[in-house]
Design a protein that fits this description.
15-stranded antiparallel β-sheet; 5-stranded antiparallel β-sheet; 4 helices; about 45% strand; disordered N terminus
Length: about 290
């Protein structure tokens, strides 16, 4: 029996909120209503699932930054940085124009390509991170105004089905995002991965065996506007109990991971950049901040 997409509508952002989380439906009338959850059969062809959502996935926002988590096999985390701490994604939707940026809004600042971007979760096989590309069902849901979950049912990994839920949470007083990945059905030999990408141009970075990594550099998030150059810093801290090893590849600073005794993997991701008026302006200052995670 084919599983049909499910939608549940919810109310908009409250006036006094300092964090926000939403899923919006891509609507040809440009109303883009909020939803509490959306679920697709695993055989939905890309980019039908990705394009069904306004912003291509769930959005999570604190006063300094926002992320969207793509509604497809990549489940990549994209990054939006603000000029001034506030909430604005309900209005800009990750699609700031030059006029909006000139007036003080933030914008999408990261080109992820095939990397792990900002702490995207991956499987790990044959020496490479791999996407979540064989599932019975994939879905996203809003838990509350500071938490979203990404879930996959019957993810076939190394020949066996895994049930996975990724929970992303923010608070109003920190730029950091906490991540908990819960897995059921994995084998003791299964290895997973996360990390931060090497920024597209002029990358500087580091990775420490204790679970901390950071990067800093320049990139062009929108290839249609090559003059729109963003300087970005990324950071991650992984729970040492989950770490198998740390390594670099051509695109990433990576941690290879296994779940703890509770079947969980925990890490924190963070970001800044010169887009922020009062943010970090050098790699040295940013790396000092990341090492405090």
């Amino acid at each position: 029996m084919r599983i049909l997409p499910i939608l549940m509508l919810c109310t908009g952002l409250t006036a006094m909120a300092q964090t926000d989380a939403y899923i919006k439906i891509h609507d040809s009338h440009e109303r883009h209503p909020r939803a509490l959850a959306i679920e697709f059969p695993g055989d939905t062809p890309f980019p039908a699932d990705y394009d069904a959502l306004y912003g291509h996935g769930a959005v999570l926002e604190n006063p300094w930054l926002a992320v969207r988590i793509y509604m497809d096999a990549r489940q990549s985390i994209d990054l939006y940085l603000k000029q001034t701490p506030r909430l604005e994604l309900d209005r800009t939707g990750f699609y700031s124009t030059k006029e909006m940026v000139d007036a003080g809004d933030g914008c999408d600042v990261l080109w992820a390509g095939k990397s792990v971007a900002m702490g995207s979760f991956r499987g790990y096989q044959n020496g490479n991170p791999v996407t979540i590309d064989s599932v019975a069902v994939r879905g996203q849901r809003v838990v509350d105004n500071h938490t979203v979950q990404i879930y996959d049912k019957d993810w076939i990994f190394n020949g066996h089905p895994i049930q996975m839920t990724q929970t992303y949470s923010v608070s109003p007083d920190s730029r950091n995002i906490d991540v908990v990945v819960e897995l059921e059905g994995y084998a003791p030999s299964d290895v997973f991965a996360t990390g931060v990408q090497k920024i597209e141009h002029d990358n500087e970075g580091f990775i420490l065996k204790n679970g901390i990594a950071g990067s800093w550099g320049n990139n062009i998030p929108d290839k249609a506007h090559p003059d729109w150059i963003e300087t970005v810093g990324l950071g991650i801290k992984v729970n040492p109990d989950n770490i198998v090893s740390a390594k670099e590849d051509d695109l990433n600073y990576l941690f290879l991971l296994r779940p703890d005794k509770e079947g969980k993997i925990r890490y924190t991701i963070t970001a800044s950049g010169t887009r922020e008026k009062d943010g970090f302006k050098t790699s040295k200052d940013w790396f000092e901040e990341v090492k405090k995670l």
